[in-house]
Amino acid sequence: MLPLFLIGIIAAICSAGGLPEGVVGLEENGHYGLAADFSLPSSFIGPPVFSCLKKAGFSIVFLPIYNAHVHPHWISDAFFNIPAAIRAGLGVEVYMVPKYHAFKEEQGLVQMNEAAGVFTNTPLKTRRIWIKVKTQNFDDDTRYNKEFLTEMISTAQKLNIDVGIYTNRKQWDFITGEWNLGGHKLWYWNVTDVGRGGETPANFENFRSFGGWTEPTVKQFGKREKICGVMVNWDVYDVRRLKHYETQKV
């Protein structure tokens, strides 16, 4: 349990607001909702933080469940963070960080099975896993990368799990050779720097089609900003394409 003085600080932050000017009244236009994503390394976040985020105007949080770059691969804090966020009234989306290994067979199958296996023998169920497609997670060979991604996606589909893709146009084109994938929800990022000064507008107006996607579902528009006593990345999502009630359930 968090110390009383920290709970008081978090409560003060909640009441003070702290939202960027561009996201105040975000949902009034009926299209956008506010989300926060937590970067790795993950840690125990705690119910007061999630309650504070809810009061501050966030509707959904994105939490890590799997990181192929470390051992063990699964994120143990997810078992505590996901239920705490749900109880605070937040929708929860989860993501995995894969890693391409040369000379390993069926690694896409193995990694997706491991990520989905986080929920085995728990009351938690997942409907969707987002895959972080960034250069540090993939090979230099676009053919291998496409095979790796295809294997992860097909494995998820066999498990009745939807897949979302986290990437941006430059990294996607470099990793996949401008592969036309589409058909899955897109979470893209457009940030110029960390902190409030690196934010871009909290909307999709600067989105340009790539990879078969003509519309995004989520945009990360701010990186490493502090609110409710924790550092988060700021996201805006299309409430028509990502429903609060479609996310994780206990």
From TrEMBL:
Signal peptide annotation: 1-16
Gene3D superfamilies: Glycosidases
Signal listed as a keyword: yes
GO biological process: innate immune response; signal transduction
InterPro entries: GH, GH25_Enzymes
UniProt keyword Signal present: yes
Entry keyword set: Signal
PANTHER family: LYSOZYME PROTEIN, LYSOZYME-RELATED
The protein's name: Uncharacterized protein
Organism in which the protein naturally occurs: Trichostrongylus colubriformis (Black scour worm)
